[in-house]
Design a protein that fits this description.
8 strands; single chain; alpha/beta; four-stranded mixed beta sheet
Length: 154
């Protein structure tokens, strides 16, 4: 398979709130808009990929009622009393400075699930969520991490 382009598609319960979150709070640049002006789909740049936020979907599109809710396993993370579907996808964003993003996003009222910390695998990670509870991990790769090594000389 030769992949020429890719994007993450989300179908939020509140498309306008999610568009504001990704555009105004996270500060993602808009690649394009499509659909009706009253409820446009928006595609944001994600480094070398894209994130599409749109109310238009096929399938269950994030429904949490009836059979769709049963198929995804009940509440988020299996917590009793939480009626959101368990998340099977998330967003991974590499940033230059996780701690600076923590300060900026916390000041904007973003729900921080895990504050920045260096994980055993060496990456500095912080977890937040979007308005629908989609997990977003912000990752900083330290200068001395193996992912930054030029492996051509090995």
């Amino acid at each position: 398979m030769e992949v020429l382009s890719s994007r993450i598609l989300i179908r939020p319960s509140d498309p306008e709130g999610s568009r504001r979150f990704y555009r105004d709070v996270l500060g993602l640049a808009v690649y394009r808009e499509f659909g009706p002006p009253s409820d446009p789909g928006v595609v944001f740049f994600l480094g070398q990929g894209f994130l599409e936020v749109s109310a238009h979907s096929g399938g269950t599109g994030g429904r949490t009622d009836g059979d769709a809710h049963e198929r995804v396993g009940g509440g988020a993370g299996g917590q009793a009393g939480d009626d959101r579907p368990e998340r099977t996808a998330g967003i991974w964003l590499q940033v230059r400075d996780v701690r600076a993003e923590h300060e900026r996003l916390a000041a904007r009222g973003v729900r921080v699930l895990w504050e920045p910390r260096q994980e055993p695998w060496g990456l500095i990670e912080m977890w937040i969520e979007d308005p629908d509870g989609t997990p977003i991990v912000l990752v900083e790769i330290p200068a001395d991490h193996p992912l930054r090594r030029d492996r051509r000389s090995l």
